[in-house]
């Protein structure tokens, strides 16, 4: 599935590197024939050809979820217009199940918080054009220790999730038996293959065994880092860690730097715009973590920026990368479909500063004219820019542009 950019994008090593990173060439990263066969199944099932988008309960609610919260959140996705922009998954995290399996060894929704059952919840979500996600664990207990894990119950649980109508599984990594992560995660991958339902499989082993190197054989996304928190320091740390693995991502298999904190309240609007811009450029899953039932208009303008979302959902599927950074001033960029380039100038320092990206940074000849559009101001900056782009960027803020090169 090798992709090609047109001639004016093949002028520099950077673009060639992006290409290698995007397609994750089988010969270059040592994928066995067995893995290739599994990848073909997962990639061909139609799931997550672009990064998944939706909402997850953990960041805001922790264990305080119930069916009313989930149903009202599904309604909010629709009423705010976010669902129409691609936010489709409504994902339960930990604590949704009873503390023990039933007499037949099956998981069951917690009667006190999900009295209608998970199947009824899935029906409610599906009726609104959305999809239901659920949480499980590759150990004996989940991370809260309040419900059973799926270790040695993989096929049984996969079949149960399919019967309920689940569309997404986040698979965590607590209370396991000490065996390798890869062994336990591939067991669930094989179980999901057997049930034949198109479920997005999200591996959450926190990047411990470099899952980017192997998880694309068995799932659609994998956590590359530990958990995010609602601070700018966490966002920058995680972005840098996730950046390392860009060459393994592509359509149907995505690096996951964890959920969005936009709207959670711990950062400034500039910091949240930077967070959303970099996650979109990196083709990360866009899973909202705040309470959508009381979200502010300012937060909705960030989460609902259609142009930035289109970068994340671009059909080329190339993870944007950090090209250079010095003293907290960084240039991040990546190719898009139709010969375009997305560029983020990110100021992680404490002072306003000028940041410059030069055409050679992303494989363009200095003489190539380009149309430049600012995706946060929603306007064209130039219709004939050449050689470089410079902007004054506030502390912890960013500028996000898309360049459309013209024929010289």
Automatic annotation (TrEMBL):
Its EC number is 3.2.1.22. One of its GO terms (biological process) is carbohydrate metabolic process. Keywords: Disulfide bond, Glycosidase, Hydrolase, Signal. Pfam families: Melibiase_2, Melibiase_C. GO terms for molecular function: alpha-galactosidase activity. It catalyses: Hydrolysis of terminal, non-reducing alpha-D-galactose residues in alpha-D-galactosides, including galactose oligosaccharides, galactomannans and galactolipids. Gene3D superfamilies: Aldolase class I (3.20.20.70), Golgi alpha-mannosidase II (2.60.40.1180). May regulate leaf (and possibly other organ) development by functioning in cell wall loosening and cell wall expansion. Belongs to the glycosyl hydrolase 27 family. This is Alpha-galactosidase.
């Amino acid at each position: 599935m090798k992709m090609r950019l047109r001639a004016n994008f093949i002028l520099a090593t950077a673009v060639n590197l992006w290409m290698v990173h995007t397609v994750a060439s089988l010969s270059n990263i040592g994928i066995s024939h067995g893995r290739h066969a599994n990848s073909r199944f997962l990639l061909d099932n139609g799931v997550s050809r672009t990064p998944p988008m939706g909402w997850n309960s953990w960041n805001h609610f922790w264990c305080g979820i119930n069916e009313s919260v989930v149903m009202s959140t599904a309604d909010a996705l629709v009423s705010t217009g976010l669902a129409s922009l691609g936010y489709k998954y409504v994902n339960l995290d930990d604590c949704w199940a009873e503390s023990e399996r039933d007499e037949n060894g099956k998981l069951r929704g917690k009667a006190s918080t999900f009295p209608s059952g998970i199947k009824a919840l899935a029906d409610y979500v599906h009726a609104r054009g959305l999809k239901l996600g659920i949480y499980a664990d590759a150990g004996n207990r989940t991370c809260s220790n309040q419900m059973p894990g799926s270790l040695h119950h993989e096929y049984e649980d996969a079949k149960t999730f399919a019967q309920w109508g689940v569309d997404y599984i986040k698979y965590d990594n607590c209370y396991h038996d000490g065996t390798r992560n890869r062994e336990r995660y591939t067991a669930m991958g094989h179980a999901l293959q057997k049930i034949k339902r198109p479920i997005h499989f999200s591996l959450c082993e926190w990047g411990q065994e470099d899952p980017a190197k192997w998880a694309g054989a068995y799932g659609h996304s994998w956590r590359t880092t530990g958990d995010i928190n609602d601070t700018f320091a966490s966002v920058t740390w995680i972005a840098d860690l996730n950046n390392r693995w860009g060459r393994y991502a592509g359509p149907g298999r995505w690096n996951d730097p964890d959920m969005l904190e936009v709207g959670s309240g711990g950062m400034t609007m500039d910091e949240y715009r930077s967070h959303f811009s970099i996650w979109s450029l990196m083709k990360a899953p866009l899973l909202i973590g705040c309470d959508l039932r009381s979200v502010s208009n300012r937060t909705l303008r960030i989460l609902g920026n259609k142009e930035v979302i289109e970068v994340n959902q671009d059909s080329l599927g190339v993870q944007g990368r950090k090209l250079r950074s010095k003293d907290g001033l960084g240039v991040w960029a990546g190719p898009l479909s139709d010969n375009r380039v997305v560029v983020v100038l990110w100021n992680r320092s404490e002072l306003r500063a000028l940041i410059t990206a030069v055409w050679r940074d992303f494989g363009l000849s200095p003489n190539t004219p380009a149309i430049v559009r600012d995706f946060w101001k929603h306007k064209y900056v130039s219709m004939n820019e050449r050689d470089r782009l410079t902007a004054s960027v506030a502390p912890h803020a960013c500028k996000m542009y898309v360049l459309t090169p013209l024929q010289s």
